[in-house]
Amino acid sequence: MECRTGCAACCIAISISSPIPGMKSGKPAGVRCVQLTEDNRCSIFGHPDRPDVCSGLQASFDMCGSTDQEAFRILSWLEQETNPNAHN
Question: pTM of this prediction?
Fold first, then answer.
């Protein structure tokens, strides 16, 4: 499965604990990554400063569903289930 251009659910819905350029402590769930452009594209895609967790994430139907909205629901649920510090 290919990422849906402009979805950005994985760049917003989930927490990232590793440093991101511009977010030295990572980012909490539900917070938009500072590296997202206005059209929800990663401005450091393919750049060596992109966190390993981001570059290692692969789109799949189980994670992304059929729509951007479904991806947000699935990833938000996964975040709640796997991260005890996640907020509603």
Answer: 0.87
